[in-house]
Inverse folding.
């Protein structure tokens, strides 16, 4: 495994940059565990101070250190993105593989449900969800809802791969070797589906982070929890740009852009590596 | 008779470098041959012997990771010589289709599935036959008659034609500009036996009428026996025997050729044919010396160390094998 | 005389074509024959593309259902196979060999995995060692051994070797019937003979019957006991292999035989 990573780092620029960027972001997120300030407190440091020492990225109008707030913010945002990606991957894999393999009425029913979810307009539903839940809304619930809205596209992709795999002769060989359908799906078909799953996971994380930021900036989430979006929300509430407190907005934005680019580069470079066709060129590993 | 194409010491390898793993697949390793005008030259050999790569290289249809490592391909069309790999891409484009055409493996794929057949003719041949459209269509229709197809084929879509008809269209496409050299890669492999017979007969007719040269590549020895004037047998990237088809079939000299011919099943024979051990070598890591020696019943010590050079076993019939005595030596 | 192994009775397979009122085409049209009534035998089904021979093979293997007629294997009607237990019982006795040896195995997985799995499910191997022993025994029957195959991926072996591994896998279950769909058409000529000879040996030494589907009359002539010639889903001629192929009576069979290229140089004048 480590030789694979080492090879990738050595030969693939995209992968190296992706690892670097994402590593940096994760480092900042990890630093949140040693933060000297509690993110829910305000006015613990002098407000509106520009970047310098001891507050490396400046302070906000609410008297919080931007750097340490950012560490919590990116941690929460990433965790949200990962949770959504995990739940929606599970959903899309299960539904896509089963629909593609089984065919017939099972496929038709599942795809009707799928297409319904594709057409649902996300944003109004999420806003509605906020208004219904209000103060009872938790991040986990939000993650669940977003995940349920995010599996549909990828399920279709996975289904088409599963359908083509179904007709290949090695599937017949597996059947005649006595394998059950679930074993075939997991052991024989999943490796072919993994490149799609991997790149769509990266996309999904990006998408869900983007959604979270959008909702938070507009105030449709629990804005007391520090996330990238909520930082920007509060900055807007205090008219930071007009007041000249640019560091309050610039640094969260920069960090989230770094996250996007890092994930994207990783997805693209891993994709080429995982693709079964390029694996043959490299021989057995 | 002048040679229409002369291949000298050609070497073409696939060089891949993925994630640090470098691999050189020596698909064509030091091959020299000539094809005369008005001759059908067959290239025989099994899968991964390099014959498809060889004709791709002759046709100039190569792209990375396949690259020519050495040697030359020199054409002689109507007195004008052209060294394919020493000239630029414009020279290669100038000869394509007009002097040199290529019927690829799976020619069904040549025809654009969403356009009618006539569009393929216009795409491929119109600019070479520099005549106005109505005359061009007349030429095409007359040419289709040569392959026993009616003009209504031009208005059809490829999927409306049968496999045999599509292959005949592909052959008509390749010959409409009356090229000096046609290269055909497995033109009848995917066809049914009965259709194959018709298409092969048609290929022979067209060649006789146009007096073009034809390089026919197929693993099916029976096709070579029935169609080709001369035959070259390849194994593991190298040419191992070459001569008139009649000579090779009546008296094959190389043990591999002998086995290929003996293993042709014939109706009426029930005796068990003896099989050959082993498998063709991996071209990324071929055996030293003669590449056939691990499977050869006549292998000697020298075969493991040196690659055999060609000896003339009979006039016009050369073999690369240490076990064969040259003409004049007893 | 024992009961026949396989009986096909007026089997039809039709496919609907076109919209609401589309006509249907019959890929297999009223085919009937028996197999194995007099001990193990090799039956060749000869036909070109569109003859229905692959559809027929699929129906015998149980992957495709017949539209009409019945297929009985050892007195079990294939249309009545239900549930995993019954399917496994059936697969223990009837195994396939496919045309493309490179597609028969998952390119991303090791070959020995399929052998071991077949041994566990169908040969009653309860432990790794017994599964390996069963796989090795089957591989030896085809001229290979587990040591050569263990840990290998499909792309590391030649077409001929892969096809032999596929045959070995099918043999692990000790089936009564092998359905081989064009098993040598994608294998090199020099490796073909070994596999064709192998079928003969298997019939003689293990008593397995083989349905050998092919478009190649010559190999069918050399190894089969009986032949059936199909054209567009219909059986045009059937009978003992030698006499039918030596002296075909149906015009299509005659045309087929004449179209076979003989390796005699310069003989055909078409």
């Amino acid at each position: 495994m480590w030789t694979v990573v080492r090879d990738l780092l050595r030969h693939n620029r995209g992968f190296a940059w992706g690892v670097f960027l994402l590593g940096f972001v994760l480092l900042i997120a990890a630093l949140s565990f040693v933060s000297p300030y509690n993110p829910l407190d305000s006015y613990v440091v002098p407000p509106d101070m520009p970047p310098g020492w001891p507050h490396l990225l400046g302070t906000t109008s609410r008297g919080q250190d931007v750097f340490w707030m950012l560490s919590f913010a990116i941690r929460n945002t990433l965790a949200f993105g990962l949770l959504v990606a995990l739940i929606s991957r599970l959903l899309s894999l299960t539904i896509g593989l089963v629909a593609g393999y089984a065919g017939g009425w099972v496929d038709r029913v599942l795809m009707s449900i799928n297409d319904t979810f594709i057409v649902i307009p996300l944003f109004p539903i999420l806003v509605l969800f906020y208004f219904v839940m209000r103060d009872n809304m938790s991040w986990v619930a939000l993650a669940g809802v977003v995940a349920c809205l995010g599996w549909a596209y990828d399920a279709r992709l996975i289904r088409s791969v599963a359908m083509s795999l179904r007709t290949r002769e090695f599937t017949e060989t597996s059947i005649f070797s006595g394998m059950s359908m679930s074993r075939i799906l997991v052991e024989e078909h999943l490796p072919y589906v993994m490149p799609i799953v991997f790149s769509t996971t990266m996309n999904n994380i990006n998408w869900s982070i983007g959604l979270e930021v959008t909702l938070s900036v507009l105030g449709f989430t629990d804005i007391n929890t520090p996330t990238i979006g909520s930082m920007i929300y509060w900055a807007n509430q205090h008219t930071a740009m007009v007041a000249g407190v640019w560091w309050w907005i610039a640094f969260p934005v920069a960090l989230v852009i770094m996250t996007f680019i890092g994930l994207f580069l990783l997805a693209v470079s891993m994709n080429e590596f995982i693709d079964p066709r390029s694996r043959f060129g490299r021989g057995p590993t | 008779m002048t040679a229409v194409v002369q291949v000298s010491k050609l070497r073409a390898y696939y060089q891949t470098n993925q994630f640090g793993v470098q691999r050189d697949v020596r698909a064509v390793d030091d091959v020299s041959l000539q094809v005369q005008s008005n001759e059908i030259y067959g290239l025989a050999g099994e899968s991964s012997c390099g014959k498809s790569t060889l004709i791709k290289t002759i046709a100039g249809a190569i792209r990375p990771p396949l690259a020519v490592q050495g040697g030359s391909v020199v054409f002689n069309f109507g007195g004008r010589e052209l060294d394919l790999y020493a000239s630029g891409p414009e020279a290669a484009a100038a000869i394509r289709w007009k002097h040199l055409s290529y019927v690829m493996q799976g020619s069904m794929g040549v025809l654009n599935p969403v356009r009618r057949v006539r569009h393929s003719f216009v795409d491929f041949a119109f600019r070479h036959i520099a005549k106005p459209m109505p005359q061009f269509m007349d030429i095409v229709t007359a040419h289709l008659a040569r392959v026993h197809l009616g003009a209504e084929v031009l208005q059809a879509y490829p999927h409306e034609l049968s496999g045999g008809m599509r292959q005949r269209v592909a052959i008509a496409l390749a010959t409409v500009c009356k090229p000096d050299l046609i290269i055909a890669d497995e033109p009848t492999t995917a066809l049914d036996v009965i259709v194959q017979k018709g298409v092969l007969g048609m290929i022979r007719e067209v060649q006789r009428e146009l007096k073009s040269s034809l390089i026919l590549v197929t693993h099916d020895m029976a096709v070579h026996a029935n169609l080709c004037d001369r035959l070259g047998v390849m194994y593991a990237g190298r040419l191992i025997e070459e001569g008139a088809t009649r000579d090779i079939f009546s008296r094959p000299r190389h043990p591999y050729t002998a086995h290929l011919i003996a293993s042709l099943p014939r109706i009426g024979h029930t005796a068990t044919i003896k099989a050959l051990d082993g498998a063709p070598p991996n071209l990324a890591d071929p055996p030293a010396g003669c590449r056939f020696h691990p499977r050869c019943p006549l292998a000697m010590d020298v075969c493991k160390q040196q690659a055999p050079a060609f000896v003339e076993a009979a006039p016009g019939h050369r073999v690369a094998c240490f076990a064969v005595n040259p003409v004049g030596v007893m | 005389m024992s009961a026949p192994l396989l009986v096909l009775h007026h089997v039809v397979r039709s496919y609907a074509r076109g919209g609401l009122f589309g006509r249907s085409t019959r890929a297999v049209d009223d085919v009937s024959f028996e197999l194995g009534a007099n001990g193990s035998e090799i039956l060749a089904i000869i036909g070109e593309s569109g003859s229905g021979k692959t559809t027929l093979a699929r129906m015998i293997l149980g992957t495709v259902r017949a539209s009409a007629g019945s297929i009985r294997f050892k007195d079990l009607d294939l249309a009545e196979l239900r549930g995993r237990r019954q399917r496994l019982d059936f697969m223990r006795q009837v195994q396939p060999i496919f045309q493309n040896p490179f597609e028969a195995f998952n390119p991303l997985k090791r070959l020995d995995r399929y052998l071991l799995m077949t041994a566990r499910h169908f040969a009653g191997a309860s432990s790794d060692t017994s599964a390996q022993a069963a796989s090795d025994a089957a591989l030896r029957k085809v001229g290979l051994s587990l040591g050569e195959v263990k840990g290998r991926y499909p792309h590391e072996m030649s077409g001929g070797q892969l096809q032999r591994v596929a045959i070995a896998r099918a043999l692990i279950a000790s089936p009564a019937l092998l359905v081989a769909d064009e098993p040598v058409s994608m294998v090199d000529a020099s490796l073909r003979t070994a596999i064709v000879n192998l079928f003969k040996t298997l019939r003689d030494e293990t008593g397995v019957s083989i349905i050998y589907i092919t478009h190649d009359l010559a190999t069918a002539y050399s190894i089969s006991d009986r032949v059936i010639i199909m054209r567009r889903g219909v059986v045009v001629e059937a009978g003992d292999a030698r006499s039918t192929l030596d002296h075909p009576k149906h015009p299509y069979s005659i045309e087929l035989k004449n179209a076979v290229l003989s390796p005699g140089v310069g003989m055909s004048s078409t």
About this structure: Chain C is about 40% helix and 25% strand.
